[in-house]
Amino acid sequence: MKDRPISDHASKGGKARAEHLTPEERSAIARQAVKARWERAGKLKPIMRATHGSPDHPLRIGELEIPCYVLEDGRRVLVQKGMMTGLGMSQGTASKGVPGDRLGKFIEGKSLSPFISKHLYDVITKPIVFRTPLGSVAYGYEATVLADLCDAVLAARKAKKLNYQQEHIAEQCEILVRGFARVGIIALVDEATGYQDDRARDALAKILESFVAKEIRKWVKTFPSDFYKEMFRLRGLPYGGKLKTPSYIGHLTNDLVYSRLAPGILDELKRKNPVDEHGRRKHKHHQWLTEEIGHPKLLQHLFAVTILMKAHDDWDTFHEKLDRTLPKYIPMPLFEQAGVSME
Question: Which of 68, 141, 231, 341 has the fewest CB atoms within 10 Å of its CB?
Answer without folding.
Answer: 341
